[in-house]
Amino acid sequence: MKQKYCAILFSAACILACGTSCVYIDEELGSNFIPMEQRYTTYIDEFAIDGIAMLPVEKLSGYSSSRVTIGAIRTETGEVSRRSSAFSLIPASEYDFGEGGEVVKFHFAIAKDTLSYINESQKRILQDVNIYALDKSLDEGDGYISTEIDPSGLEQIADGAIYDGGDSLSFDFRKEWAERLLHEKLQTLEESAYDSVGAFTEKVFPGIYMAVDEPVSAGGRINMFTITTGADLEYYTLSGGYATMTVHGVKYEGRDELVDTTFMFLYGAQDFSITQAATDYYSGETLTPQYALNMSSSTLDDLATEQPSDEIIVDGGGGLKPVIYAKGLRDGFMEILAKNSIDPGSVIINKATIVLPFSESTSYESMECYPAILSPTCKVYGEDSDGNEIVSYAGITDTSVSSENQGNINRSTFEYSPDISYHMQQILDLEDYSEDAEVKKEYEQKDIWLLTLAVEEEQEEQEGTSEYYQNLQYSMYYNSLYNNYYGYGYGGYGYGYGGYYGGYGYNNYYDYYALAAYYSAMSSQSSQSNSTTILDRDRYYKAVLRGPEADAGEQTGTGTQDGSKTELEKRRVPYLRVTYSVRQK
User: 376: number of CA atoms within 13 Å, CB side?
Assistant: First the structure.
C-alpha cells in the first residue's frame, strides 16, 4: 500500500516539475529571412527646446458664429484682459418702414452662454455695459481678434445697460437715437440697400459696438452670449436673441389709418430672414448664419519676447502664446543625428512629443485659469478672391489616432505634452536653413503656435422622446384638473386653478404611476450630453510655464521613479522627446 502511494506522489511530482519547467523562446527565430533593407533600429532621444518665443497670436480671426463676448478682468498684480464685440443689426425681413410714427421702445435682448472669471465671488457682480453706434461697416476692417475700435469718437446709444451675470442681457436703446435711426435711415433707405447685407450696413446702419468698464480693483468677469436667434423650425417660434423696435402711428401708402407695429432685428445675420432655404450645403431649411466680431486685448502683450528666459506666459484671447520655431527643432535633432553618425534621410519618426512643464507648486485654484488643451498648430497661408493674403491655423496633432496627445493638461505631472509626430517628420525633411526668402517662408510655416482649446458639453434632446414626455406632462396636468376626488375648482379653463378647492391629496393613482415613469425615463433617455473641442478665443486664461532658463531648484519632477528620470525631466524645462527608426545597412 505504501509503495502504491509513493508511486502516485512520484508521478505527481514529475508532472508538476514538467509543468513549471522553463521553455526557451527564440524571439529572433526567422530574423535571418528579413531582407537587410527592411530592418530598422529604434532610438529614443530628447533635447531641450531653446528656440521658443512668447508672442501675441498673429492674424487670428475674431469672427464667431456662436457668441458675443464682452468683459474685463484685472488681476491682483494689475494686468488687465479685455473683451469687446461688434456686430450688425439686420432687419429680419425686407421691411417697409412706412412714414412718420413714434418709437415707443427699441429693445435689445441676448441670452447668456457662459461666464469666465478668476474666482467665484465675481460670478454675479454688476458690470456697466457701454453700447455705441459704429460709424463704418465691419467689412472695412481686417476681421482679426486684435482689431481695435476706439469708442471715444462713437455715439453712445443706450443708458443704464447693466449685466449681473444672469440669464440674459437686456436693455432699451436711447429713444432719441432710435427716432433718428427710424426717420433718417430706415424710412429713407433705397431699394438697393436690400440687395445684400453688405449694402445695408454700408448705406443704412453699420451696427453696434459693445464693451464693459474695466474694474478698478482686482476682479471682473468675461461674459459670453449666444448670438444666434433661438427658433423652432417645426413650430416657428422664437426664444430670444433679437431686438425689437415698437413704433406707433406709422403711415403706409394706400392705408388711411395709422398703424402700430413692431420690427424685428437680428444680430450679425447674413440675410434679411430668420431662416434660409435649402442650398448646396444644406438639404433643408436652416437658420440664417449670424456673426459677431469679438476682439481682445491684454496688458500682458507688452511682455512679448522671442527669447523668454525662466517663464512662458499663456494668455487668453489673442494674447501671448508659446511659439516653437521649426529651425530650433530641426537644429536640435540634426545635432543628435550627427553625434550618432545617422543619415537624416534614413530616419522615420515614430513619435515626437513636446513637453512643456509648469511649476509643481501651482495651486489648484490657479490651475482653474489654465487652458484644458494647449493645441499645437501651424499657420496656413492662402489668398482671397482679391488676391490678398489670408492666414488660418491648422492643428498638427493627428486627431484620428486615439493614442496621440492633443495637448491636454496633466495635473498629476504638471505639464502639457502634445504630440507632433508627422509635423516633426516634415520639419526634418526641410532643406537646410538659409536667408533665402522662400526657405525662410517654409520654416515660418512650420513654426508651432500653441493655441488654447476648450472642451464644451452640449445637451442634445431626443426630439421624439421629448415630445412624448411633454404630452405626458399635459396629460397628468389635466388629469389633476378633472379626475381628482373633488376635482372641480376653476379647472374648466386649464389655467392652473384646477383643484384649488378640490382634491386635498386624493389624486388619481395613475397620475403617481405616470409621474414616476416620467421622471425615470426623463433622467435616462430623453437627452444626451455631447462634448466638443473648440478653439477658445473667449475665456480668461493665464498659465505660467517653465522657460528654457527656469531655475534648476525644482528638480524632482513627478510621474516616474527618481531612478528613471532623465536629466531634462529633472530640470523641468521645455524639451522634445522623439522616438525614431533608422534603416540598418
Answer: 29
Residue 31 lies in a domain: no
User: Is residue 101 in some structural domain?
Assistant: yes
Quick check: 355 and 374 in contact, CB under 8 A? Answer: no
* Sign of the CA dihedral with 200 first, then 201, 205, and 208 last: positive
Grid cell locating 293? 466680431
Residue 149 φ/ψ, nearest 5 degrees: -115, 125
H or E element: which one contains 149?
Answer: none
Helix axes 463-482, 509-524, angle to 10 degrees: 160
Instruction: Name the grid cell of 523.
Output: 433622467
Q: Both 317 and 190 in a single domain?
A: no
Verdict on whether the full-model pTM lies above 0.85:
no
Per the document, the length of the chain is 585
Q: Is residue 367 part of a domain?
A: no
d(CA 500, CA 249) in angstroms, rounded, equals 44
Q: Domain check: are 344 and 250 in the same one?
A: no
Range of the structural domain that residue 93 is part of: 66-290
Report the distance separating Cα 145 and Cα 118, nearest Å. Answer: 22
Per-residue pLDDT at 496: 35
The chain-wide mean pLDDT, for the chain, equals: 85
Sequence-separated (6 or more) residues with CB below 8 Å from residue 355 = 415, 416, 417, 568, 574, 575, 576, 577
Say yes or no to pLDDT of 304 above 70.
yes
3-class state of residue 506 by DSSP: coil
User: Helix H segments across 406-446?
Assistant: 421-428, 437-446
Q: How many domains does the chain have?
A: 3
> Does one domain contain both 476 and 433?
no
Note the pLDDT of residue 7: 58
Residues 268, 223, single domain; the answer is yes
Distances (CA, A) of 25 to 41, 178, 325, 557: 22, 87, 47, 38
Task: Tell me the per-residue pLDDT of 109-158, one tens digit each, with 9 for 90 and over.
Answer: 999 999 999 999 999 999 999 999 999 999 877 799 999 999 999 999 99
**Other beta carbons within 10 Å of 368:** 12
Does some domain include residue 143?
Answer: yes
Identify the H or E element spanning 337. helix 326-339
CA neighbor of 300 nearest in space, from 311, 290, 310: 311
Q: CA-to-CA distance for 549 and 551, rounded, in angstroms?
A: 6
